[in-house]
Amino acid sequence: MAEMKIYNTLTREKAVFTPLEGNKVRMYVCGMTVYDYCHLGHGRVLVAFDVITRYLRARGYEVTYVRNITDIDDKIIRRAAENGEPIEALTDRMIDAMHEDEARLNVLRPDVEPRATGHIADIIAMVETLVEKGYAYPADNGDVYYRVRRFAEYGKLSNRNPDDMRSGARIEVEEAKEDPLDFVLWKAAKPGEASWPSPWGEGRPGWHIECSAMSTCCLGKSFDIHGGGPDLVFPHHENEIAQSEAATGQHYANVWMHAGALRVNNEKMSKSLGNFFTLREVFEQYDAETVRYLMVSSHYRSPINYAPDSLDDAHRSLVRFYTALEGVTPEQGPVEAQYAERFHAAMDDDFNTPEALATMFDLVRVLNAAKREGAPEAPALAFELKRLGGILGLLDSNPAEFLQGGQPLALSADEIEAYIERRNQARKDKDFAESDRIRDLLADKGITLKDSREGTTWVRA
Ligand SMILES: [Zn+2]
To answer: Per the confidence metrics, is the pTM higher than 0.85?
Structure first.
């Protein structure tokens, strides 16, 4: 079989992937802190590592996919108190919601889903080892800290030098720490907070140590792939390396993979900008396969822009696929090997999904031609198209239903008003191409504009 290349954040280059043990791939991905519903950015990470897992399996690797749940944390404690509910009631509810959202995005569940609160003994044992080895120290305030300067390779993942970090003004000064760079492994409990007994008194784990302990428990001291969202490289993953390699004395994860950012209308998604969406809000407006397609159509390391136009494009692409599949009963049969070969060549090159989809579009053209000509190979071509789509977690719907559903892609009144405002501005600027484009875009969605002296009004068809 051809070689497969993966980009490694640690070495900052694409390299041939070789599992540590035969054809077994052990992969750990940082999961959710379950105090609220999953947002679009979470959805992107979920889909990225789902495609990676599906493709590794399609290639014959035996994958063990572990994704943790952080179910104890400051935000969780605060939210549960605000809601007046026990922590477990909140976290159980959010975990159920996460599983529902995942299922709608056609994301397969990980093989193991450890919860931090289920691994407190392992976490304490790892902190004890770090204290014994001199990499950590209990402070006067009851916290236990990691001694960053003791770990010579600190900064190797995020390419930072501790000396430069020290001069940075953003490091909070905590008097109990020996050095401002040190980070917390174990937090002393405040009165009334959820806590567990430990050699350093009642407390709870810091976030970083949870992942070191859970990944080691589930996958061993060294494993193949560690993944997560773009914002986790520093400090979370840098700290995980420092903890795990100091505690075990062994190389931690071989390949570090990070998904790219998700932006909304070309801005960073944030509550303060008013462009923050949970997955369930998104699913009220767009069907989930369209959202998944948007994510798969970008390379997993590239930024994705979530905007009505890009979702329209995603939906139109799916319509082309399902139109080709409609009216043919897929049946396995001989098909030119070039489609699968090109698909695999693209995916073997650091999971290049845009290239893989381009190959699938070539297959759509051939399938459409076969259907027009009534050629006997149409069922085999349809089978191949669905098979390749399945590796990306796409094209699972019934074509007729997908197309008949018409996928409302309904715009909210606010969004329509925002388009009208953009169109008014374009007209003022005499940019009539842009104003026509917006009018047509709205017409495609069944929104008709009426211009009068009083302004522009709209009706939904
Ligand atoms: Zn983590």
So the answer is: yes
